Amino acid sequence: MEKLSILPQRVRAAPPGDTQRTSLARLSIILCPLPVKILPLASAAATPLPDPPTIDPMAADMQQVDRVIRQRLSSQVALINQISSYIVGAGGKRIRPRLVLLFAQALGFDGPEAHELAATVEFIHTATLLHDDVVDESSLRRGRATSNAMFGNAASVLVGDFLYSRAFQMMVSVQRPRVLEVLADATNVIAEGEVLQLMNMHDPDLSVDEYLRVIRFKTAKLFEASARLGAVLADADAAQELACATYGRALGTAFQLVDDLLDYEGSSDELGKNVGDDLREGKPTLPLLVAMQRATNEEKALIRKAIEAGEVERLPDVIAIVRRTGALDATRQAAEAEASLARDSIATLPPSNARAALLELSVRAVHRSA
Fold first, then answer.
1. What pLDDT digit, counting tens, does each position of 73-112 carry?
2. Could you report the per-residue pLDDT of 138-154, keeping only the tens digit for each?
3. Angle 221-233/238-265 helices, nearest 10 degrees?
4. Which neighbouring-strand residues pair with 4?
5. Structural contact between residues 97 and 121, judged by C-beta atoms closer than 8 angstroms
6. Cα–Cα distance between 195 and 281 in angstroms, integer?
7. Which domains does the chain have, with CATH numbers?
8. pLDDT, tens digit, 9 for 90 and up, residues 121-133
9. Rounded to 5 degrees, what angle do the CA atoms 251, 255, 260 make?
10. Cα gap 325→273, rounded to integer Å
11. Is 269 exposed, middle or buried (0-12, 13-18, 19+ CB in 10 A)?
């Protein structure tokens, strides 16, 4: 019997404005004889993990973004204030706002519009989290109860709508048509990604390409938009904007791939959410897709049934299979390849502290436990 392994392949970057093609590293299923050997990704795997900075160089800017967030959250409706403050106050990595700021700085822009748009993308992201948790019936996020668990589904959905509409008010205030174009396109694609994911639930026959399409729509698109906004603020040319967008898409894809493997490798305490949520929700993520390609017939049947029925009680068995088949290693290698593509895409940016921070971010997005 032949087994399958996942190896990365590069594809040519899409021309500016072409939304149908992708500059991401395409992951393809390649047949190879037993035993399965996961080939090393030299450019990605050889990248050392940088020492953590003693002082966050973005601290002052992120504090300003937090001030903008608090100001823009204000509403005359008490429940909106309560739920918005609850979800935003839970913290988070704030990667998307950082991308806006870092690319703006890397390209020479330093104005208050960067903080406004950084807060805007965080509002859009927060709105998607509120809606996601309702759809997924999640009860834990960032180490505490989700808003829908605390306040109910209806209130969470409506406050998510408020955050979306407030984000559009904020993007209009910058008075740049290209900003509106980027974010309007992003929010539309994200919504399509949410529906695609819903359609793919409990489907063990999902292809890797279909799985990646959901990631690119649902997660990577806002990373891409955040990076583009920095370039737009700096009045970058089309080639520079495309390079920033390529970094954002690749980083977003790498980030989601790691999130998906951590659902079978991490701990609830570190992740701040319940391990095994993807299986409970019937999401056929890459660790499961690879494991099914490499597993025995009996193991494959077990995973298929777990996906179809959302059998989280089979999680220990599923984890054992994904580890034995090397599916977690393959998923991390795929993430490494995307992170490497992200680094390559900004090679033409002039040397700066912002560019160095972007390179470091691409490494840390993969080498993390939460």
1. 889 999 888 888 887 777 678 999 999 999 999 999 999 9
2. 777 656 778 887 788 88
3. 150
4. 31
5. yes
6. 14
7. 64-362 (1.10.600.10)
8. 999 999 998 888 7
9. 150
10. 25
11. exposed
